[in-house]
Structure formats: C-alpha cells, structure tokens
Specification:
It holds the Pfam family 4HBT_2. The protein is α+β, with helices and mostly antiparallel strands. The protein has a single domain, classed as Thiol Ester Dehydrase, Chain A (Roll), CATH 3.10.129.10. The protein is built from three helices and six strands, in the order βααβββββα.
Length: about 170
C-alpha cells in the first residue's frame, strides 16, 4: 500500500443489485448479500495487497472463519450499493472486519456483515502469523479505523431482543 492516507472506512461504490440476485419477494435474496460484501472486500484486498499476488508470491492467504449478517432494509434490482469496510480488530494471526451496506442513492442501511478472517500458510494450509510487512500495513489500517465509532452490530449474536441502530 503506497498511499500515505488510509481511507477510514474503505468505501466501495462499484456494485448494483443484479437481476439474478432478486428472489420471489422482489428484493435481493439473502444468499447474495455475502456475495456483494465479498465483492466489496475484494477491492479492499487489492488496495492492501492481500489478494492473489500474496498467494502467488508468498504462499500465504486468508480464509474466512466466521461471518455474521444483519438485514436492515430492502434493496431491489438495479439499486446502487455503497459498502463500507472497517477493520475493528487485529492480532498476529487473524483480523476482524465489519462492513455496512447502504442504498447508494437513498443512503439507508440495508445490511451489515461482520467477518473473522484467518491468516494462512498455504503450503501447510494452517493458520500462521502474518509476515511483518503485512502486519505493519494492517496496523496502519487499524490505527486509522480506530478513529471511527464502533459499529453497534459488532459482536452481536442472535437474540429475541431487537437491538437496531438508533436514528
């Protein structure tokens, strides 16, 4: 990552709800929310040099180990999406990300996605400490993203109590 300024959070505006993502209710099907979040995540990985180049040059990669979604507003075919990605935690072997999906024009929150990602040695296919240069890049991101307020959905679990965002 060569730029001096780190976006806090990272923002993707390249996605729209695709026709094949629509279900019989006329809105985006639950199965495609992880796909949209993952596509936005790909943009972050390119910026942080965590994608294919890391696999091919260092035999290291990342694997998702846990994900939690919340659905907070409908989106429909053709709707533009704005997805923010925030690093909320980091140690030598894993990182904790939070994404929020907004309607790209109307601005309302449609969904959130929380990820626990593991750093993996691809030769052994085991969780391992990340190289110092990768950890240093992510430390810079965490420092920048730590200035953001913590999303209220971080650490949520399924419960009968409704704990939506205020406002």
């Amino acid at each position: 990552m060569t730029e001096a300024v780190i976006d806090a959070p990272f923002v993707s505006t390249s996605l729209k709800v695709r026709p094949e993502w629509i279900d019989s209710n006329g809105h985006m099907n639950v199965a495609f929310y992880p796909r949209a979040f993952d596509l936005a995540f790909d943009e972050v990985y390119v910026r942080l040099a965590l994608g294919q180049e890391m696999v091919s040059t260092a035999n290291t990669s990342t694997f998702a180990s846990e994900m939690h979604l919340t659905f907070q507003g409908e989106v429909f075919e053709g709707d533009p999406l704005r997805i923010t990605t925030q690093l909320v935690g980091l140690n030598a072997k894993k990182f904790h990300w939070f994404q929020a999906m907004y309607h790209g024009e109307k601005g309302y929150l449609a969904a959130t996605c929380e990820w626990m990602i593991l750093f993996v040695d691809m030769l052994q296919r085991r969780v391992s400490p990340m190289p110092d240069d990768v950890k240093a890049r992510l430390d810079r991101v965490l420092a920048a993203h730590s200035q953001l307020p913590p999303p209220p959905e971080v650490g949520r679990y399924i419960s009968m109590q409704n704990r939506r965002r205020a406002g």
